[in-house]
Amino acid sequence: MSNPPGNGSGHGERDGDGRLPGPPNVTLVDVLIENLGQRGGDGGNQRRGYDAFHRLDPPIFKVTKDPLDVDHWIRIIEQKFGLMECDDYEKVTLAAHQLDDAAGAWWQGYLTQQERDHRVDWAEFKAAFRAHHFPAGLMELKADEFRNLKQGNKSIIEYTSAFNYLSQYALYEVSSDPKKQNCYLRGLSLRIQDRLSVASCANFNALVSKAIKVESKMLELDAETHKRVATPPHGGTSSQRPHTGATPPPRVPSYGAPQPMWMVRNQGA
After folding, report:
1. 245: three-class secondary structure by DSSP
2. Residue 117 DSSP code
3. Where in the numbering of this chain does the Retrotransposon gag domain appear (predicted)?
4. What letter would DSSP give residue 169?
């Protein structure tokens, strides 16, 4: 016997076999649309908005050991928002859908700490997200790592890559091109610093290009010097050491110690 129309999903009602019906099949998309529809907008338009966001392939954020991944994720998400129409509350709903594992658990915990009728906007979401995944203490440690960066045994290419990466933690140190050049020069090897000290570079990229050329020429000179040291003069292979001092006096032959006279007479008898 079928249920009367409109009552098929009633809670507590049993079916013909006496079993309680399962929970309604609510998808995550339905939940998002319900949240997006709090402003009273058309559900169909809201669904199309979510579908449009999903087609943009927004990245999932789980957990990271690199704090820069936090800002990178936010930048990508905001780029996706720029391709669609959504307000600051819809942005939070859509972005939160992309949080998984530890990040998703953090978000659920953050929401439970808010007042029941409080709605988180995009600015609040970003501030809370950064504060949790990118604490100020870690930011300062990375900034110190940038300030203490030295070329050491790294090539110019390797040093430049490390410089550009770590400079993201200390943007105030490289806020202008001259400041960036000074920071870069400070970490170079002393030999390359000496060569570049008399050079004038229009911008940071020109300085890097000049440093690469200086390094290449220095490597060529070092290889040539090593080759000359390893090759004997005039191509000779003699192992004789060159004469460097005065001629020593002639050696006097030794005939042994003088013998007593009685031994000499006995030998002649």
Report:
1. coil
2. T
3. 94-189
4. G
